[in-house]
Structure formats: structure tokens, C-alpha cells
Amino acid sequence: MFDHQAKLGLGGETLAGSAIVRHFLRRRSLNNDLSGLRLHYRIDAFGERFHLNLTADSSFIAPSYTVTHLGEEQSNDTDSQSTDPGDMRHCFFRGHVNAKSEYPAVFSLCTGLIGTFTTQHGEFFLEPLLNAKPASSEMRGTMREELESLRATVEHQRVLENNFTGPHPRSPRRRKRFLSYPRYVELMVTADAKMVRHHGRNLEHYILTIMSVVTAVYRDPSIGNLISIKIVKLEGPTVSFNAATTLHNFCVWQQSHNVQDDSHPSHHDTMFMRICVFSCVCVLVCVDPVGLAELGTMCDPYRSCSISEENGISASFTIAHELGHVFNMPHDDNPKCREAGIKHQYHVMAPTLNYDTNPWSWSKCSRKYITDFLDTGYGECLLDEPVGRTYDMPTLLPGQLYNANRQCELMFGPGSQICPYLKQCKRLWCTSAEGDHKGCRTQHMPLADGTDCGHGMYCRHGMCVNKDLDLQPVHGEWGPWGPYSVCSRSCGGGTRSTTRDCNKPEPRNGGKFCVGRRMKFRSCNTEPCPRGQKDFREEQCSQFDGKHFNINGLPPTVRWVPKYSGILMKDRCKLFCRVAGTTAYYQLKDRVIDGTPCGPDTYDICVQGLCRQAGCDHVLNSKARNDKCGVCGGDNSSCKTLEGTFNDAQYGYNTVVRIPAGAMNIDIKQVSYSGKPEDDNYLALSDSHSNFLLNGNFVVAMFKREIDFKGTVIDYSGSDTKVERINCTDLTFMLLLYQFCFDYLHTVCSSVNVSPHTASVFTSFLEKECNEYQRVVTETCDDHPCPKWIISEWSECSSTCAGGFQRRVVVCQDADGRSNNYCDERVKPAESKNCDSGPCPLWNYGVWGECTQTCGGGRRTRLVVCQRPNGQRLNDYNCDILDKPPDMEQCNLQSCPGSSSWHRDPWKPV
């Protein structure tokens, strides 16, 4: 208790009635500018006199910050005092003590004189005593020399959301990669009804205290990025007894409460919910004993959310962990970490907590995955700094706000106290509510920073340190660039990279991580690869030959080839490989090797999983391009264009043109004279030694195919088309003969193939039409067994309702089981088929209930359920959540006579 407190005038005189210390400022208009309002107080305590010179300051509160209450408000005698947004903004003052600017003072005056100030003798905290006389307050002192200005925490208030119409400074331009940008995670925090009842008015203060720890964890330099946590909203949805269902409902609910415009101050990038989790059984999501989140969903408007169990101040580490999953971080013991060559390190993303876990810092694996996630463009929504709508975290350390015994109560329930036998900062050991004779227990969480651990000592990051240590934030600075790595390719244009670390100095005590470029690349080994060498992406696929990954239907001798067509642009730098001889393909690696072309029709190359510009000179960021002669950077003067038509044919193969070595941009078309694919004319190619490359010996390919000729890729449309086409943009290195096959006699006068592989279409004509020609004589040939189609079992149906499709692997093999290309495509078994999985469940809804208000804006609800056509009720996630009809709407919005206030009724069950 202190001796006396008085309110003074500007001249220092004591004002009448100044002994009353319960201050409740009158409501003022939000438009009133109180920036010049000054107050003076005198406090006599500890044998000293303190003069406080205070000026109104609410700059730390966003202009339109929001606290939203859903459900019935709890009546509580101790919570009868209530303020609106205008009051909240006029509560806070800052200034100095005894006319010395080096001794700051920060106070809130709305619920009593609450705050802190510093003098040469230490740090003092002033707060009202609960259940005491109005004039009773308590002042405590500590000897912490360095004090950041305290920003008073906002008490639990009901605040209406204000409309926002402001500038949108964010540019839609995509940012450069491999740069460390400041990232701002705009969080919406939700507490369930049980948590609201338990904490009462202190809820907001309690949540912000927890989030201040989360902020500190994400400021640790081991994360390798500048991540700022910003709270933009406090709200809450329906809780299920199943964690997976709750997560699903929560994600859908939060999306409906989010402003889609990323530059709007009410927009949040992700969201977490603090509840008691009853069951943690779920597939496709990371499941933790006290939390649940889906991997890599940051910036996904429908899935960027997580839930965490409320278990005291230590819940902050659970929240940091679950938020890490949203940033695509796996657990520290995940095989992905081992594949990256990173040994086990148990930090924030440890799968379970034990004595060796360090929950304050991040493992190298976590640093790698969050950096990859951000560098590959999945965190674009985090680049906009919140515009005037965030909650400031308490600057007092959590342990200074909640002592060790209170931390035990928050974790294990009322009556739990700090264990007298195991007093340490690294782990919080607590007794049961029945006393220490029942033993002590822990959840392997550290004591909150700022918890007293001895005379002049307190806990910091799990260690007991002297309070006099210099804990001023130290911002990081970049160190020197390291040496360049070895070239990623031996020819064809590879890359070398260099990195630098933020360690000169490394950020400390909450200092900022470095901003700027952290990785540079340069081209190397840009000379073309030798002719005939295997394509670089093909080399990477072939490394998996013989590996079937336990995929049903794949033989032990499976051969993998690159898959280009049908791949999304954003996935071009992932290694997709196709099973040779089939259309089935799979992603075999997350990234191709740096320097791999992004596709067969571009010189751009993949670097760190991203497609980057490169020229025909294989140099990164080069704009060099081939001219029409195929000369890189040429001026089109080294070649000439040859073109012509051919319209004179005799039976058999007719040589049309000899294509010399060095030709490129070859385009040959044969247009059907009948307007139908079956016109009995075919294109053919052979080399200078009369070896056919395409459609030789009257064996015609009906379908599209690619021909690899000495490193040159030739595209053929297939004969079963009205416009048959041969196309090649690459440079040819050998003489080619373009031939034309006229097969009229054969197809008209015979219904017998001269070869089992002939793919011509045959038509019957009258015998007299063939009299002037010699009848075709047939004989048997090629009597060895023909290759045949080998098929696997059908896969499961791709959809659980409304019909899906099933796939199977179809491979052409000869009698010896070797892959073959000469199976009859006309009888190839289907690789996919439709499957009937029954009708899909649909949303079914009832009639609207009565409105909760007759005027002034109420709500009405109705039952909306997911049902099968037979009436069976299912969980909501079995129906299309985007099509779910609303189960609540506003009603009776007209103003009430003589009333201008809003009233909310409790939620009704559905």
C-alpha cells in the first residue's frame, strides 16, 4: 500500500476531491482530439514523492479495432462497469516522472489508476486492489533498469466495429524472390464460451499476453525471416467434440467473417481458435495432442486456420507450433527433415515435448521450410502491413503479469501451486490442487518470461538471468556473402549460388531480422551439351527406373520418362515423370535440379523450384533469342526459307523434298482432299540411308507421337486427322527425306493387310473396278507372337458420389515382357472409366424461425443439414461447403421508435 495519491493542477496545486482514485473518464466523441489533454498526479510511497506529468495517448490502439462477442453475455457483478470505443480511446496516458524525460510513465485511468513508471531506483507498478475500498491501491517496485514504454492493455469491453474507408497502398505487383521481406501475419483470435466465462473481463488482456509470447517466438532469429504477428480481430464459432470437425467448421466460419480485400484493416491472413480439444483424430492434417492445423495453408482463405487447447500461458508455444504448420513446417522428426540432411533438433516444431525440447527457437528444418514456402510465393498475402487496425501486445513480460502460482492455476486448475522441489525456469512443475504431497507434474513448458526465480533474477527463455542484463533489442545486419557453390550442371546452362546470413550482428532480444537479398545466382557451364546426350529432365526421371513405389500395377522394371503436357504452369519445376508406354504419371520430387529447362519449348530454367528467365545462350536473366535460322542472337541473315506444294502422286512412296542438315522450323502438312481423316494418303520420313523414321513399310501411325532423331524432337499429328502434320522447331543434324505415301490401290482392291501393323482404313469396291489392275497377292509374314496390352487392376473411384472415374495402367509388352511400341492402338484397353458411386448428399434446410427482434435489427435461424437422398444425415464436410445455404440472417432492420442502441440476443441451437 502507498501513503497518498492526489490529483494536481497544471501549477502543481492539489485539486479538490483528488483523494478518490477510481477514475472513470466521461464518454467523449470519437472525433474529439485529446492529444493535448494533460493530467498531473502526486504519489507518496516508499518514503518518496513522485510527480506524474501525463499526456493523453491512444496511438497504440488501431482507429477501428474490434472486439466481437458472439452468444449470450455473461452477467457478473464485478464486470458491471462497461465502456464503449470512445471511452477506450480516452483511457490511456503517457508521460514522465519528476520532470525527467528519462523516467517514463504509462497509465490507464478508466478502471482505476493502473500503470507503471520508472525512476533511478527501479520500476514501479500501480494497480487497484480487488475487493478493497475505493481509495485503496497497491504499488509494487522492481529493479529492472531498462524499461520499454508500457502500452496499457485494453480491458474486456464490448466494442462495435467501425466502417473503414481508407487508402489501399498495397501494390498487386509480384515481389522478387529470394529476398527477405517483412511479413505481417494478421491474426483473428477466437475464444470459446467456456474460456470467456473463466477469464471474464481479463480475457482480452490474457489473450494479448499469450500472443506477446507468440510474437517473441516468431521474432527469434533462428526462424530466418522477419515475421510480425498482428492481432486484428477477436471473435467465435461452434465447437464440436471432434477436433477435425471443429477445425473444418472453424475454417468455414472464419472465412465468412473475413474481409476479402487484403488491404482492408479487418482482413486477416490466418486465424486460430483457443478451445479445449477433445479428440485429435484426423487425416490429411497435422495432429498434435493440444492443437490441430492443416499444412501449408497460409493465405488460403478457406483453410488458413488452427485450433489450440487453452492451458495457461504455455499455450503460446502450442499456438506458435500450430501456426508453424500453417507455414508448411513439418515436425522436427519428419522424414522431410532427414531427406534435407538435417539431423534431429527438437524446437518449436517438436512432435512432443520433453526435457530436451527448446520451444523458444526453431530448428534448421523449420527455417528451411518456412523460407522455401515464402520464397516460392505462397506468402504473398503477408506483404501488406496492417493499416491502423492491430492490437498492441503488452510490453510487460508475461511472468510479470502472471506469477508462477498463477501460471500453475492456468495450466492445471485452481489450487495448483509452483512445485517447491523443482523450481527452475526450463520447465513449469506444479503441484496438484490437493497439495505437494500428491507429487508434482509438468507439461514440459517453460515458465513465462519475467517470472521471478531469485533475488534480482527472472526467467528469460527458460534460463534464470539477472534483471540488470542489457535486454535492449538488437537489430540484425547482413554478414558477408559466402563462396559460390559448384555448378548444378556440366553443360547446357547450370547455376551457382551464394548466400549470406543475418549475423553481423544476429538479432537479439526481439530485434528485427535482416531485410534484403539473402541468395544470389549466376550462370555457369552454358555451352551446349553434346548431341545425342539424354535430356536433363529425362536423366532425372531415369534415376527412378526400377522403382515402383508400391504403386499397384507397376512392374519391377518400370521405366520413367518426363511428363510435360498437362502440368500446371506453377508446377513446371517439380519433377513429374510418366510411366513409359502409359499415360499414368506421378510427382517424384518436389524440385528439379537447378538449371533444368522449365519445359521443352522454352529456354527458361528452374532455380530453387521457380521458373526463371533465361536466354538461348543458357544465361540466367538473358533475353537472347534464336532468330528464324536457329542462330542465338542472330539477325535472320544466315538462312533462307524454302516452301512449296506437291500434288502429283503415284502408287507407293513418293519423295517430295530432301531436308538438309541444319534446317529448322520444319512444317509439313497434308490436307485431306475428302475432308475426312481416311483419305489413303500419308506422310513419311526417312534418313539418308533409307531407314524410315515415320510410317515406313506401309505401317502407319494413326495417333500423335514424338520422334527423337539424333537429339531432334519431331512432332507427328498421327494419320487419323483431316490435316496430317509433321512439325519440328529444333535444328536437324542429318539429311531427312520427306516422302508421300499414296496407297489408293491397296486400300481399294484388297481387304487383307500386307502387314499386321498396317493402320489403313479399308473399303470394299466392286470387282470390275479392279480389273485394270493386278490383283494383290497375299502371303503370311511376321508369324512371331505379336505384342499385347497388359493391364493392371482398376483403382478406387475418384469420387465418393455423383460418379467419378477409375484408372488403371495399360502397358504394351512383347512375349518376353519387354516394353514395346507396336501394339494395335485401335484395340488398346481403356485407361480410365466412369464409376457410379451414387448420388451426392445435398444441403437440406428448414423454414426460418422467428426474428429475435421486432425492430432495430435482429437475427433469425433455420436448420441446415447435409443429407443423402434417403434422409441419412452426414457431417457438413460431406457436402460442398461453398454451396451451403445460410443458417442465419438479419431481420427487422428498421430502427426502433425513439431508440438508437443495438441489442444482441443469445445464439439459438440449430
Automatic annotation (TrEMBL):
<feature type="disulfide bond">
    <location>
        <begin position="251"/>
        <end position="305"/>
    </location>
</feature>
<keyword id="KW-0479">Metal-binding</keyword>
<dbReference type="InterPro" id="IPR050439">
    <property type="entry name" value="ADAMTS_ADAMTS-like"/>
</dbReference>
<dbReference type="InterPro" id="IPR041645">
    <property type="entry name" value="ADAMTS_CR_2"/>
</dbReference>
<keyword id="KW-0325">Glycoprotein</keyword>
<feature type="disulfide bond">
    <location>
        <begin position="419"/>
        <end position="440"/>
    </location>
</feature>
<feature type="binding site">
    <location>
        <position position="384"/>
    </location>
    <ligand>
        <name>Ca(2+) 1</name>
    </ligand>
</feature>
<feature type="disulfide bond">
    <location>
        <begin position="299"/>
        <end position="381"/>
    </location>
</feature>
<feature type="binding site">
    <location>
        <position position="186"/>
    </location>
    <ligand>
        <name>Ca(2+) 2</name>
    </ligand>
</feature>
<dbReference type="GO" id="GO:0004222">
    <property type="term" value="F:metalloendopeptidase activity"/>
</dbReference>
<keyword id="KW-0272">Extracellular matrix</keyword>
<dbReference type="Pfam" id="PF05986">
    <property type="entry name" value="ADAMTS_spacer1"/>
</dbReference>
<feature type="binding site">
    <location>
        <position position="186"/>
    </location>
    <ligand>
        <name>Ca(2+) 1</name>
    </ligand>
</feature>
<keyword id="KW-0677">Repeat</keyword>
<dbReference type="GO" id="GO:0046872">
    <property type="term" value="F:metal ion binding"/>
</dbReference>
<dbReference type="Pfam" id="PF01562">
    <property type="entry name" value="Pep_M12B_propep"/>
</dbReference>
<feature type="disulfide bond">
    <location>
        <begin position="453"/>
        <end position="464"/>
    </location>
</feature>
<keyword id="KW-0732">Signal</keyword>
<feature type="disulfide bond">
    <location>
        <begin position="502"/>
        <end position="514"/>
    </location>
</feature>
<feature type="binding site">
    <location>
        <position position="262"/>
    </location>
    <ligand>
        <name>Ca(2+) 1</name>
    </ligand>
</feature>
<feature type="binding site">
    <location>
        <position position="325"/>
    </location>
    <ligand>
        <name>Zn(2+)</name>
    </ligand>
</feature>
<dbReference type="Pfam" id="PF19236">
    <property type="entry name" value="ADAMTS_CR_3"/>
</dbReference>
<keyword id="KW-0106">Calcium</keyword>
<dbReference type="InterPro" id="IPR010294">
    <property type="entry name" value="ADAMTS_spacer1"/>
</dbReference>
<dbReference type="InterPro" id="IPR013273">
    <property type="entry name" value="ADAMTS/ADAMTS-like"/>
</dbReference>
<keyword id="KW-0482">Metalloprotease</keyword>
<dbReference type="InterPro" id="IPR045371">
    <property type="entry name" value="ADAMTS_CR_3"/>
</dbReference>
<dbReference type="InterPro" id="IPR002870">
    <property type="entry name" value="Peptidase_M12B_N"/>
</dbReference>
<dbReference type="InterPro" id="IPR024079">
    <property type="entry name" value="MetalloPept_cat_dom_sf"/>
</dbReference>
<feature type="binding site">
    <location>
        <position position="269"/>
    </location>
    <ligand>
        <name>Ca(2+) 1</name>
    </ligand>
</feature>
<keyword id="KW-0165">Cleavage on pair of basic residues</keyword>
<keyword id="KW-1015">Disulfide bond</keyword>
<feature type="active site">
    <location>
        <position position="322"/>
    </location>
</feature>
<dbReference type="Pfam" id="PF01421">
    <property type="entry name" value="Reprolysin"/>
</dbReference>
<feature type="binding site">
    <location>
        <position position="321"/>
    </location>
    <ligand>
        <name>Zn(2+)</name>
    </ligand>
</feature>
<feature type="binding site">
    <location>
        <position position="381"/>
    </location>
    <ligand>
        <name>Ca(2+) 1</name>
    </ligand>
</feature>
<dbReference type="Pfam" id="PF17771">
    <property type="entry name" value="ADAMTS_CR_2"/>
</dbReference>
<dbReference type="GO" id="GO:0030198">
    <property type="term" value="P:extracellular matrix organization"/>
</dbReference>
<feature type="disulfide bond">
    <location>
        <begin position="487"/>
        <end position="524"/>
    </location>
</feature>
<dbReference type="Pfam" id="PF19030">
    <property type="entry name" value="TSP1_ADAMTS"/>
</dbReference>
<feature type="binding site">
    <location>
        <position position="384"/>
    </location>
    <ligand>
        <name>Ca(2+) 2</name>
    </ligand>
</feature>
<feature type="disulfide bond">
    <location>
        <begin position="491"/>
        <end position="529"/>
    </location>
</feature>
